[in-house]
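**Paired protein data**
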Amino acid sequence: MSLIFRIVLSVLQWYKYAFFIRAILSWFPPIDFLEPVYQILYSITEPLIEKFRRFIPQRGIFDLSFLAAILFLEFARIILIRIFFNLY
């Protein structure tokens, strides 16, 4: 059980890293050799962001659904840790 728990936490952590890398890459103009990386990050992160965009409208240039997705992942990680260690 502990191994599965660690794997799930690692996947959540790497998923969060993918969001941060996508955010950093969005600040820069497109670069040809990074296009495959951006496409992979987009295909991984966009499904979760899209779910939050339905409820959180974009405010000008700020997309708060991105922040909501990262917070959701962090809360999911915290809840899983509390459930695993019975720390309700």
Q: What stands out?
A: Residues 2-84 form one domain. The mean pLDDT is 86.
